[in-house]
Every structure is written in C-alpha cells, then in structure tokens.
Write a structure and sequence with these properties.
Elements: H1 2-9, H2 18-25, H3 29-38, H4 42-47, H5 49-64, E1 74-81, E2 84-91, H6 93-106, E3 108-111, H7 133-145, E4 152-156, H8 163-178, E5 182-186, H9 187-200, H10 203-212, E6 215-219, H11 228-244, E7 249-253, H12 257-265, E8 266-267, E9 270-271, H13 273-286, E10 287-291
Parallel strand pairs: 3-5, 4-7, 4-10, 5-6, 6-7
Antiparallel strand pairs: 1-2, 8-9
Length: 300
C-alpha cells in the first residue's frame, strides 16, 4: 500500500497530478459501483484512494494481459475491510478450471503407458462411428449406473484400433463424474516387472496396489509372455480380491474370452485347461465381453 501511495504522489514531468489521478480513479465504473453498493462516505472514499488505484491498475493489466501483472491466475476484487476499501486477489475462472482438470488427471495413474493417455477427452474419440456405438454406450452406461453396477468391460479387437484410448477416456469420465481413481496398467510390462520384483521382495506390494485400486484397467492382457506362476499366484490373486469386493475391473485384449483361455491353458507341463478356466471364471464375473471393430489407426 505504501509503495502504491508513493507512486501516486511522486511528481514527474510526465505523471498526472494526485488530483487528476483521483478524478480518473473515482470515475471508473467498477469503482463507482462499489462505492455506491457499499454506501461509502467521502472520508472513507478519500482514505481508500490508494486501494482504488491498486485495483484499477492491476485490473487493467489483467485485462490487457500485461506481463507485469502481479498475480497470474488471480483477479483483483474490491472488498470492505474495517470500514475502508481493500483489494484481495481471487482465483480466475481459468485457474479454477485448470485446477479442476489437473485434479481429474491426477486421479489417473498410468503404469508403463504413454503420458498422453492422461489427456484423452471426448474430442479424441469418433462418436459418429456406428461400429463403435455399442461400446461407447456401454462405457457411458457404466459411468451413469455406478456404483449400483460395478461390472466392467472386456474389450477385444485387432491391434491399434483405440482400445487403450477408450479406457483412458473412461478413466477421465469416472474421475470427473465420481472422483474415482483409476490405475491403467500395461499388463505385458507388469508381468515382466512382477518377475523382476522377486529379487527385491516387492511382489506383494505390486499385487496389493492392483488389488486395491478403486478402478483397474488391465491393458493388452494376453500379449504377455505366459507364465503359470503369474497366472495362478499373481493375476488370480488380484482378480479374486476384486471379485470379492466388487471392484470395477476392465480389460483390453487382442483375444476373445475363448482365445485368452487357450492362451492361459498353455504351459510347460502341457495342458492346463483347468487352471485357465479358474482365471477365466473370475474375468467373466468381473467384465462383460465386447468386440470393438475398427481399422489400425497407428498406420493411418
């Protein structure tokens, strides 16, 4: 305040007089409206000139997007403080929107998937594609019916048709609509990581993280190097807990349910159909199988 008042009072060849500045300030529409609204007396107005000056100066800088503006992301607002005018700086709608979007994105955790998926929105999807309408509708139905319905989706189809994009979009919708956190994990890489975790003893922590996730997406399941140990002692443990607790679980794959079961049934010891069926029973309970049609967009 003292610095502002000194700036107003300091005489220079090119500067306006205090009287000229006061007249200009008290002619400002916003300030006039504030004085009238607050019913300020002449004495209160006179003692508030420096604050009016600060308000007008910084407001004009904000409107002109002046680089010297002192409070980026905030706007000056006049208030009454112990009988005199004062200036406070409140969040702009743009800052509020930015923080809301950041909160939405921060509830999306990506494990070995590109950071760009955190920024997927409706503009990245083609809702006019009639072949995808059923899948889009199923995702929206889940968002609208949660928590009454917690069964996820198992979306399968060819390479590069946007299955991961759909799951990232779902995570964004669940974060915005319900405040839910989603872990999207690239399952083939997770399988490699979980095997390496044996050395440092962190296997249980990695399993627990996926077990407890509010929403879990296992992306590209079936593309991993098959391991009976991972199938029976890792994946099945995760799925069993999520099945018992009715925790939303989603999957993407190039395999149908039938193909995935054959994938899980292949083991070094020969046919492991029974073990594969146990895992598939849990996947079928957790998610509904849906085929996603489309062309490979990675090469288009």
């Amino acid at each position: 305040m003292d610095a502002i008042q000194k700036n107003m009072m300091r005489p220079t060849k090119s500067s306006k007089s205090f009287e000229q500045l006061s007249k200009e300030i008290l002619g400002d529409e916003d300030i006039v409206a504030f004085i009238k609204e607050q019913g300020m007396t002449n004495d209160q107005v006179g003692l508030s000139i420096s604050k009016f000056f600060e308000y007008k100066t910084e407001r004009d800088k904000l409107l002109k997007q002046d680089a010297s503006y002192i409070a980026e992301g905030y706007k000056p607002v006049l208030i009454m403080n112990e009988g005199y005018a004062d200036v406070v700086y409140r969040e702009t709608p743009e800052l509020v929107e930015y923080r809301q979007q950041e909160a939405i994105r921060n509830r999306i955790q990506l494990m070995n998937l590109p950071e760009s998926l955190r920024h997927i929105s409706s503009t990245d999807l083609d809702f006019e594609d009639e072949f995808r309408f059923e899948v889009y509708q199923a995702l929206e139905n889940f968002v609208q019916s949660y928590p009454n319905n917690s069964q996820g989706l198992y979306i399968f189809g060819r390479f590069g048709i946007g299955k991961s994009y759909l799951m990232a979009y779902l995570a964004q919708r669940l974060s915005k609509t319900h405040g839910l956190s989603t872990i999207l994990v690239h399952y083939p890489t997770f399988v490699v990581d979980i095997k390496n975790a044996i050395k440092d003893g962190s296997v249980k922590d990695k399993i627990d993280e996926l077990k407890m996730a509010q929403v879990l997406v296992l992306d590209d399941i079936g593309a991993e190097q098959h391991s009976p140990w991972v199938r029976d002692d890792v994946l099945q443990v995760i799925l069993q807990h999520r099945m018992q607790e009715n925790l939303p679980t989603f999957f993407t794959s190039n395999f149908s349910f039938a193909d995935l079961e054959r994938h899980f049934a292949t083991g070094k010891s020969g046919d492991e159909t029974w073990q594969a069926q146990r895992v598939m029973e849990r996947i079928r309970y957790l998610a509904r199988e849906m085929y996603l049609e489309g062309k490979n967009r990675r090469h288009s």
